[in-house]
Design goal:
alpha+beta; 6 helices; 275 residues; 39% strand; eight-stranded mixed barrel
């Protein structure tokens, strides 16, 4: 029951997004899982126990259960590889089933998840206006190549693309107001994106719904964004790189591989380090 502390999507053994990982014969009670997640204080903690030929998995933020978390899944993949040997692991979530592949070689950990199916749809104008107001942005700050969008891959995110890297760096908002907005509209994060080139994106993810101002790396949102790029026929070339956490001093690198089939799972991978 001793939680592991791992950071996913690190780079050269630095940065990344911390997650708690609890692997046990059975899940603790829901109250205990909430308390463990709150005590750890990371944006998410993943709980896994063996169930047949798979692992039953649940995710908790310090304030709530979330349906899917990318960086915690990647951390779990690395932890399972360390404990069980390198390979592919089946995961049963609350609403779907996915896989994660973990590798541990010479002390270097790496993992890749296959996301739930993706979907996207234009965001309602009322939500867009409220999100811009929350973040101190104007419509003129938005990149005209992208419309504000709901995008999902196990959890739903609002995607707002910005014209300026400086506006991305200046992200700030009130946590309580952000929590109310996200929960009212059923979104887990607001992802702000700046396009460096067709295959390289800089991202910040506001995660007030989970009681956290910002994540330094967000695998679930990366999968959702990659699926959205496929939906709009962006020239992604089958793979994108997402750079996140730089403005927090915790640079993280996420790789997302994008097959052609609409809605198909996204492979999200990265380095993992021990904390």
């Amino acid at each position: 029951m001793q939680p592991l502390r791992l950071a996913s999507f690190s780079t050269q053994n630095k940065g990344g997004n911390p997650a708690g990982v609890v692997i046990a014969p059975q899940h603790p009670s829901e109250d205990e899982m909430r308390k463990i997640a709150a005590d750890l204080g990371y944006s998410e903690t993943v709980f896994a126990h063996p169930q047949g030929d798979a692992w039953r998995v649940r995710y908790f933020s310090p304030e709530s259960e979330v349906p899917f978390c990318g960086h915690a899944t990647v951390a779990l993949g690395a932890a399972l590889a360390s404990a069980q040997g390198n390979g592919m692991f089946k995961l049963t979530l609350n609403d779907t089933a996915i896989t994660v592949e973990g590798h541990n070689q010479n002390g270097q950990m790496h993992a890749a998840l296959q996301s739930p199916a993706t979907h996207s749809a234009p965001a309602k104008s009322g939500l867009t206006d409220a999100a811009l107001s929350l973040l101190g942005l104007q419509k003129s700050d938005l990149d005209p190549r992208f419309i504000p969008t709901f995008a999902g891959a196990g959890a739903t995110h609002l995607i707002l693309a910005l014209k300026s890297r400086d506006r991305l760096a200046a992200m700030s908002y009130d946590l309580a107001a952000g929590r109310d907005l996200m929960r009212a509209h059923g979104i887990v994060t607001i992802a702000l994106v700046w396009v460096e080139d067709n295959q390289r994106f800089h991202v910040r993810n506001a995660f007030a719904s989970g009681g956290v101002i910002e994540d330094p790396a967000t695998g679930a949102a990366a999968a959702a964004f990659a699926g959205y790029l496929r939906d709009i026929k962006w020239p992604h070339g089958g793979k994108i790189t997402i750079i996140q956490g730089e403005d927090m001093g915790a640079k993280s690198i996420i790789t997302a591989e994008i097959p052609d089939e609409k809605g198909a799972s996204i492979r999200v991978s990265g380095e993992v380090r021990q904390i």
